[in-house]
Design brief:
The chain is mainly α. 68% of the residues lie in helices and 0% in strands. It has helices spanning 3-18, 21-31, 38-42, 47-56, 59-69, 73-82. α1 (3-18) packs across α4 (47-56), α1 packs across α6 and α4 packs antiparallel against α6.
């Protein structure tokens, strides 16, 4: 998968998470981010790959996303690999 398509899928995944307060709350809790920090974090290397890794870590959530996005579950892994495949870790000052 080209990096541009992978980024698009990851942004779509982030939008999917942000579209539901419960889903977003769980994501923020796991990442340690506050709602006001997402935009800055999105510019950090590996963040979008981390969004896909988070999504893939929950089979039910991944299935909901693929249904919503009209993509295959394997596309999440392909996009994650295209973006470097490394999990994003928040740098704590």
């Amino acid at each position: 998968m080209p990096a541009e398509a992978a980024e698009g899928l990851a942004i779509q995944a982030l939008t999917f998470l942000a579209g539901d307060p419960e889903r977003l709350g769980r994501f923020l809790s796991v990442t340690g981010l506050g709602p006001d920090q997402i935009r800055a974090a999105a510019g950090e290397p590996g963040f979008l790959a981390g969004v896909l890794a988070y999504l893939a870590s929950d089979e039910k959530l991944a299935a909901e996303f693929t249904l919503d996005a009209g993509c295959a579950a394997a596309d999440i892994a392909r996009a994650h690999n295209a973006l470097g495949g490394e999990p994003w870790e928040r740098e704590i000052p």
